[in-house]
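Researcher: Following up on the earlier apo prediction. This time include the ligand. It's magnesium ion, with the SMILES given after the sequence.
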Amino acid sequence: MYNSHMCIFGATSSGKTYMAGHLFASLPNWNIFFNTQFEPVLHKKFGGYEVTGISALTKALEDKHRRIVYTPHSETPQGQQAELSEIIDILFAMGRIFNTKGDRVIWCHLYVDEVHLLSPKKAPFDRLDRVATQGKRFGVIGVFISQRPALVSQTLITQSDKQIIYRCNTYEIPYFERYGYPIADHFDWLDQDYHFILDDGRKITRMNPIKV
Ligand SMILES: Nc1ncnc2c1ncn2[C@@H]1O[C@H](COP(=O)(O)OP(=O)(O)OP(=O)(O)O)[C@@H](O)[C@H]1O
Ligand SMILES: [Mg+2]
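Model: Understood. Below is the ligand-bound prediction.
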């Protein structure tokens, strides 16, 4: 279930960060949350170890913290991209060490919130897109979270075998329809608080709210 890249989409307050926080807290391997939104819930409720800055992150990894919330120094997309680049380089370098036998063991999930700001459709951010195209080779899985699927880099979406979709704003609907995605079939389901659908690439399943 969790060996493929994942997108979590939905309107504001639909439950995306809560879902990501739940995965972050429960997946057994290493989990790094790039906390673009400066969400306190990730350390307060989901047990994340908070760091800011690359040297603090490196130290936390050395100390074997497995649930790390990285709060960026920068508040601009460009500055955050630079920080995320460094993180991805570190994770790929660690992945090379962990996966020296070429067995592609998944050892890390990298969560990126508000990903349309960091890798927008119109100006994709190559380094993050490389997580989607090459991350598995280094044992790194991406979890891409956004309110605005219509504005997210296409590479991130097409490389994600799993889509978790919450209630979406009406202006996102044409996006799904353009790809022949049967979102309208599930409006009644998604209109209920924190309900979502899980698309694993083969079928779409209606899911009840997660319980944390
Ligand atoms: N499964 C759930 N069960 C109970 N409460 C939930 C659940 N999911 C979310 N909530 C509540 O709804 C609030 C908003 O959810 P969340 O922060 O996940 O929204 P979001 O989709 O990330 O929104 P935004 O795009 O604004 O960041 C949470 O703080 C929590 O109180
Ligand atoms: Mg959120």
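Model: The radius of gyration is 16 Å.
Researcher: Noted. I'll compare it with the apo version next.
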